[in-house]
Amino acid sequence: MMASLESLLPHASRLAQFPRDENARSNLVLRLQLCGDPKTLRALAARFPFEPEVAVPVWRRIASLGVENPAALVESAGVMYSLGEDENAREWVDAAIALDEKFVPAWELKAALCADPAERRAVYEQLLNIAPGNRTAVDALIVLGRPKD
């Protein structure tokens, strides 16, 4: 049985209304496992963009369905990054790069996730090796300046 948007909405609404309710959280996660349609899950996530207690499990499910798709992993990672879930975002960006080491959006997001300027510089330099002239990398390297010897 495939979960529909209509069957998921009450569980997501309950968790949004009562974010500390573990029963509501586990009910939503269980129902999400019954949904294998990323389009339905994206529609659910779109209804709760500012409710991280709902959005995070929904995007985790979307990422789990796209484990062989770098674009889906980076999309999920980008949402997690915007929700402050940097560890999940890093994990999925690294998985996307492992699938396709020349996937430019993954490298761009990986750079954004780097707190250390030296590490960020190295990622942007790698991005330029993959995509010479990439404006994001060129502009970022100008801002970061030359490495200190």
Q: Give the ordered list of helices and strands.
A: HHHHHHHHH
- From the N-terminal CA to the C-terminal CA, the straight-line distance is 60 Å
What's the total count of β strands?
A: 0
Would you tell me the overall average pLDDT?
93
Write a structural description.
The chain has nine helices and no strands. By secondary structure, it is mainly α. Helix 2 (22-33) packs parallel to helix 4. The chain is elongated and about 55 Å long. The protein starts with a helix and ends in a 5-residue tail after the last helix.
List keywords for this structure.
149 residues, mainly alpha, 9 helices, 0% strand, elongated
Task: Offer a concise description of the structure.
The protein has helices spanning 5-17, 22-33, 38-47, 52-65, 70-82, 86-99, 104-113, 117-130, 135-144. It is an all-alpha fold and 149 residues long.
Question: What's the layout of helices and strands?
Answer:
Elements: H1 5-17, H2 22-33, H3 38-47, H4 52-65, H5 70-82, H6 86-99, H7 104-113, H8 117-130, H9 135-144
